[in-house]
Amino acid sequence: MSSAILRQASAAARRIPRVAAFSTSAAARKDFVQELYIKELKSYKPPPSPKDAHVGVVKPFTVPPPPQPPTLPADLASELSAYDAVEPVAAEAKGAATSTDQAGAGAEQFLAFLEADAPKAADAHH
C-alpha cells in the first residue's frame, strides 16, 4: 500500500513543473535601490591627492647624531679618594653588625616555630 502511495506522489511531482513551485514575483522584482547603490559605488573615483599633501603633516627625517663614547676623568685617583672620604663605611659596618644579630635571632625563632608540633585541631562538632 505504501509503495502505491509513493508511486502516485512521484507521478504527481513529475507532472508539476518545478519552476511553478517557486514564486516568480521575487525573481521578476528587482531591488532598484541596491542596484543604484552598487552602480554609484562602482563609478566612484576618489579625488587625486596632490603631490605635496604630506607637507606639514610628516616631519622630515634626520639621522640622529652618533652617541659619544664615555670618557674617564683625568684625575681618577683624586675623585676616588674624595668618594671614599664621603662614604660612611665605618658607621655602616657597625649598624650592619647589630642588624645581623637581630636577624639571626629572628631566624632562630622562625626555625623553632617551624620545628614545633602543629596544634591539633579539635574534633568537629556537627
**How many E-type strands?**
0
Report helical residue fraction: 40-55%
Order of helices and strands: HHHHH
Q: What's the average pLDDT?
A: 77
User: What structural class should be given to the helix and strand makeup?
Assistant: mainly alpha
Rg for CA atoms: 47 Å
Shape summary: flat
Count of alpha and pi helical runs: 5
Largest sheet: none
Low-confidence stretches: none
Beta-strand share of residues: under 5%
End-to-end separation in angstroms reads 72 Å
Describe this structure in words.
The chain is mainly alpha-helical. The protein has a domain at 89-114. It has helices at residues 2-15, 24-28, 32-43, 76-86, 89-115.
Gist?
The protein has 126 residues and is an all-alpha fold. Helices cover 55% and strands 0% of the residues.
